[in-house]
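Worked example 3. Consider a protein that binds uridine-5'-diphosphate-xylopyranose.
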Amino acid sequence: MSSPSISVCGLGYVGLSTAVCFASRGFKVIGVDVDEQKVKLINSGQPLIYEPSLRELLAEPIEKGLLSCTLDYKHAISESRTTFITVGTPAGSDGSIDLRNVEDSSRQIGRALRDQREWHLVVVRSTVTPGTTSQLVKPIIETTSGKKCGVDWGLCMNPEFLREGSAVKDTFKPDRIVIGEHDRTSGDRLENLYRQFYGEQQPPILRMSPVNAEFVKYANNAFLAMKVSYINMIANLCQKISGADILQVAKAIGLDKRIGPLFLEAGLGYGGSCFPKDLKALLDFAKKKGIDAPLIESTIRINESQPLKALEMAEQILVDLEDKRIAVLGLAFKPNTDDLREAVSIRLINALLEKRAKVVAYDPIATDNARRILGDKVLFASSALDCIDGADSCIVVTEWDEFRKLRPEDFERMRNPVVIDGRRIFDPQEFKRVVRFEAIGLGATSMSPSE
Ligand code: UDX
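Given these inputs, the predicted complex is written out as structure tokens:
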């Protein structure tokens, strides 16, 4: 059977990863975006975002003509049988999500469907609050196309759970596929598409209503973010208990099968394009429904103050940060990405600058993006060693593998070797022998067993 053709509207990291992964398995894929420059660059094999193995995977389908990008919705729809909506849903000023991209995309799809004779499946993959697929996307497409959903065209909601930095891996090996179907035919069609895509390595497929699929995404992300804020709260407590260490506590908690070991890494908080935005959107959604959501509120509150823990630790040792040279290792919101959206580093650096500290920062790949945000308020070093050279304190903000290789002796080049490990990548015993060492979730002094 020949592979079906799909179109993907919105070529951000979700859309592009989806498009590239389908094309790499022989599907004919047409990507659509409103950004001409982006379309041109992708067509020339440049992915625009840093995502491991994306660039390599992109080259072959483009060469073979399996993947092409366009600004033209009509062309994309007429050349495909299934269309994924993967446009961004940024946060509005009140925390609610801004659905304008979804509306525009739906309108364009509807107009293109007006002249289509064949049945077409539309799949909402953007993160949208419960009700959006049925109450916004469906009526827009019905009005603009003049065609009835469930009869002339089908509709599904299919949330993605891709992590930046492993979007390709997550697309090929997801924990499950969630299909929210408007009607059975639409669900069957999408399930078949995924069966063809995954072949022997079929992940579990869960079928439900669109509203449940929409809610799964928010409930999922809120739970993960809550786990991170929970372990950060426990870490903050550990720091006040002589001899306590969050690594030991988290390891033991994580071995309880009811809790699980993942997302229990204490640090300076979560960032990125999803957790902060999704938690705020969920809170706003709950408020509009007249429901208190104190767990979500606390998750957000803990996360907002967490980056400042590093500043507090630096202040405790250096007393006054004015004119002190603070080295910040890592700017990206997490390793293996150049993304700085809601990055902890920006919040921390701005707070350090307010204290009139001199900040010098280094990141293996996110420096150009950081320069666009921070300008010349910060000095950018070209290596980790350059960054810490002559500094009064060094704060590890992102746990890049490159930093894990640094030895305690490397920090002797600092003017004042004070190392603050915000991501628990260094061995305290080893470091404490050579430098003044503080870390998230590490109690002040160790207690002997008899104490
Ligand atoms: C997340 C979800 O995991 C993904 O399913 C969803 O589709 C998009 O949002 P992403 O933002 O790419 O993915 O990153 P993720 O790996 O989940 O990490 C989010 C943030 O939490 C990062 O800032 C990370 O540093 C932080 N984190 C994660 C911790 O601080 N501790 C942990 O134990 C795990």
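Take a moment to read the result before moving on. Confidence is low (pLDDT under 50) at residues 446-451. The chain has two domains: 5-208, 242-439.
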